[in-house]
Amino acid sequence: MARVVRFHRIGGPEVLQIDDVVVPPPLAGEVRSNVKALGLNRADAMFRSGQYLEQPTFPSRLGYEAAGTVESVGRDVQGFTPGDAVSTIAVPSQGRYGVYGEIAVVPATSLVKHPPFLSWTEAAAVWMAYLTAYGALIDVSNLASGDFILIPAASSSVGIAAIQVARLVGAVPIALTRTDSKREALSRLGAEFVMTTENQDLVAEVMRITKGQGARIAFDPVGGPTIASLTAALARGGTLFLYGALGAEPTPLPHLDVFSKALTIRGYLVFELMFDPARLERAKQFVLEGLTSRQLKPVIAKTFALSEIVEAHRYQESNRQIGKIVVTV
Ligand SMILES: NC(=O)c1ccc[n+]([C@@H]2O[C@H](COP(=O)([O-])OP(=O)(O)OC[C@H]3O[C@@H](n4cnc5c(N)ncnc54)[C@H](OP(=O)(O)O)[C@@H]3O)[C@@H](O)[C@H]2O)c1
């Protein structure tokens, strides 16, 4: 028997419970691991509350991201053996392969060997954030030295990864946050400029900073009415990435800016990389090299014990965090 987190109905953090269950052995192509730490992603809370791309079948497991040691491997698995230290780089389905708990069984293609200099907590905070930022900014956009990039929800784990990835290639990260409380932290974490959206004129500030040109990229996980300011702050030929749905309000299409400045509005899901082995390999190399050079360094907002999983989800939805929330097992 293993302690795993499951939910038996859709709802708030309180629907999460720890159940003792028999976790089956790995099937062909799968790896079964002892989990040491798991990283929270906003998608987990959205899945729990029935607002995600995938709908749960009850009782449902959840969670994309974990680090631990391999316990056993299924048929046809190559490259992993019992005892290896590994992290998940996001599983294809939370319901089927959810990693919250003492044991996780995931496809071998969703695993990467854990660089030895990372703690378990850090290793559970790497892959979703950096692969998402790398995929949109480097793989799709070739972000380069001198490019200005707007990063809404910059204090999120993906936002901080985007700041670090931008700096690594010499681009200029402009971090957006809603209130003044995270300004100083975002500057310390590498944002060249920080803007508070509730009390600053985003478009005027971006135009001042970019000497009237506008930014090349906006990397937005929020949506809603602020995308009109983001498109107004983009340069001619710029790209607005939409990669999340943190905002609850309808998202307008600012079509005047879109056609007059030849903008691209591009959706992005990290699974774009997961299903393309060559692109995924390049992504892993980029992240591993960045971790080794310490130019990419996961920021941990707070850690919780597995027994505090409900509190961990409450904390995430309070939006007080700066960086990744990690649960140790
Ligand atoms: N497309 C993909 O493949 C992919 C992969 C990973 C993550 N994501 C998405 O990336 C986003 C960040 O994920 P995460 O797990 O890193 O999140 P997180 O750490 O939980 O980020 C939360 C932060 O976002 C900001 N925020 C929350 N609600 C907001 C709103 N309504 N308007 C503006 N800002 C808001 C808050 O910062 P302030 O209070 O400072 O504003 C908050 O601290 C999520 O939308 C997630 O679904 C997408």
Q: Topology, pairings included?
A:
Layout: E1 2-7, E2 16-21, E3 30-39, H1 42-48, E4 65-73, E5 85-88, H2 94-97, E6 103-107, E7 111-113, H3 120-123, H4 127-140, E8 148-151, H5 157-168, E9 172-177, H6 183-188, E10 193-196, H7 202-209, E11 215-220, H8 227-232, E12 234-242, H9 255-260, E13 264-267, H10 271-274, H11 277-292, E14 300-305, H12 309-318, E15 324-328
Parallel strand pairs: 8-9, 8-11, 9-10, 11-12, 12-13, 14-15
Antiparallel strand pairs: 1-2, 3-4, 3-6, 3-15, 4-5, 5-7
Bound molecules: NADP nicotinamide-adenine-dinucleotide phosphate.
Describe the overall structure.
The protein has two domains: 2-126 and 298-328, Alpha-Beta Complex (Quinone Oxidoreductase, Chain A, domain 1); 128-271, NAD(P)-binding Rossmann-like Domain (Rossmann fold), CATH 3.40.50. It has helices spanning 42-48, 94-97, 120-123, 127-140, 157-168, 183-188, 202-209, 227-232, 255-260, 271-274, 277-292, 309-318; strands spanning 2-7, 16-21, 30-39, 65-73, 85-88, 103-107, 111-113, 148-151, 172-177, 193-196, 215-220, 234-242, 264-267, 300-305, 324-328. The chain has twelve helices and 15 strands. Strands 3, 4, 5, 6, 7, 14 and 15 form a seven-stranded mixed β-sheet that branches. With 329 residues, the protein is of the alpha/beta class. Helices cover 29% and strands 26% of the residues. The radius of gyration is 20 Å and the shape is globular. α4 crosses α5 (157-168) and α4 (127-140) crosses α11. Residues 41-43, 128, 132, 153, 155-158, 177-178, 182, 221-222, 243-244, 246-247, 268-270, 316, 319, 321 line the site of NADP nicotinamide-adenine-dinucleotide phosphate.
